[in-house]
Structure formats: structure tokens, C-alpha cells
């Protein structure tokens, strides 16, 4: 629950198991995409990619701080996606896979929740793509984003 007594976005999605199902569905969609399949099929993929992605999204959307406590931080996430050159098309595909995965994973079809999740992912894709020019410098100690019903929380 949030301070105002309203469920967090994390709770509205369905908590930990729902985020795992969402990350799994999203990964499946990425692997089925002819372009996105390449970056996700490299030999050095983290074996727990899906679990880590689920923990990351859960934390950003108001869940427990499992990613920043047990996995890595925002600087690592930005660094992982940086310096790949012009990948705007991959960003569009990533967003499309996320929106389809919401249905695949059975995330509640509440219009306010869906709009909130879409706005978050549009923002997050743009944030990652901002570091795609070769040589882009990722800031050290970048704070984990927090996304609420009202958008990015300062
Ligand atoms: C342009 C679109 C994107 C592409 C092509 C992409 C690709 C990737 C790849 C290849 C990995 C590494 C997988 C591995 O080695 O385990 C990864 C990891 C990850 N990505 Fe993305 N990604 C994109 C956008 C995003 C966005 C928008 C977010 C956040 C909302 C995100 C969050 C993450 C996280 C949390 C990880 C796991 C980091 C970890 O293992 O600690 N990605 N991504």
C-alpha cells in the first residue's frame, strides 16, 4: 500500500509472482522478434536474466528493493545498454513486446494501470536509448528510478 492507502503500482500488477510472469512473457516475446532475438541470444547472457529483470521492474514500480540490494544498480543497467549505436528500432520493438507481454502474463486490464505501465516503459526505453551513442558516459551512482501512479518520482 502507498502512504495514501492506495495499492502501489507493484501491488496492482500482482506482486512478485506477477512480475516474474511478466518478465518471462516479455523475454519470450523478445526471442520471437526477428531483430530483438539477436541481443538476447548472445553467449554471455546472465542465466538469471528473467528473474533479475522481474526484480528490477518490481522495484522501480514500488516493490521491494531486491534488485538494488541483491543484483546491481541503475548505473549497471544503463551501462549494460550503452554504446550500441543507433538502436531506436530495438527500443520500439522492446516496448511493443512489453505491451503484448502484459496480456500474455494476465496483468489486470485496468485502463489506468495499463496507461501507467505504458508511460513507464516509454520513459525507460528513452532513458536507456539516451546512452546508445558510442562513447556515451553513464553517470556513476545513478539512482534507481521510482515510477508511481503520477509518473517519475523525483
Ligand atoms: C532497446 C531496448 C533494449 C534491448 C535491446 C535490451 C537488451 C538487453 C540485453 C541484451 C540484456 C542482457 C541480458 C543478459 O546478459 O542477461 C539486458 C538486460 C537488462 N535489461 Fe535490457 N534491453 C532493452 C531495454 C531495456 C529497458 C527499457 C529496461 C528497463 C525498463 C531494461 C532493463 C534491463 C535489466 C534490468 C537487465 C538485467 C540487468 C542485470 O542482469 O542485472 N532493458 N537488456
Automatic annotation (TrEMBL):
Pfam families: Bac_globin. SUPFAM superfamilies: Globin-like (SSF46458). Keywords: Heme, Iron, Metal-binding, Transport. It comes from the Bacteria. It comes from Actinomycetospora chibensis. This is Group II truncated hemoglobin. Coiled coil: none annotated.
Amino acid at each position: 500500500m502507498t502512504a495514501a492507502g492506495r495499492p502501489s503500482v507493484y501491488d496492482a500488477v500482482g506482486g512478485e509472482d506477477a512480475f516474474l510472469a511478466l518478465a518471462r512473457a516479455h523475454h519470450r516475446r523478445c526471442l520471437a522478434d526477428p531483430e530483438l532475438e539477436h541481443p538476447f541470444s548472445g553467449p554471455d547472457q546472465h542465466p538469471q536474466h528473467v528473474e533479475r529483470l522481474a526484480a528490477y521492474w518490481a522495484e522501480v514500480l514500488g516493490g521491494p528493493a531486491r534488485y538494488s540490494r541483491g543484483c546491481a544498480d541503475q548505473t549497471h543497467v544503463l551501462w549494460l545498454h550503452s554504446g550500441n549505436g543507433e538502436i531506436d528500432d530495438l527500443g520500439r520493438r522492446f516496448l511493443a513486446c512489453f505491451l503484448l507481454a502484459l496480456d500474455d502474463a494476465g496483468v489486470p486490464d485496468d485502463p489506468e494501470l495499463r496507461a501507467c505501465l505504458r508511460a513507464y516503459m516509454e520513459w525507460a526505453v528513452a532513458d536507456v536509448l539516451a546512452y546508445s551513442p558510442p562513447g556515451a558516459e553513464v553517470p556513476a551512482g545513478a539512482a534507481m528510478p521510482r515510477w508511481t501512479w503520477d509518473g517519475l518520482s523525483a
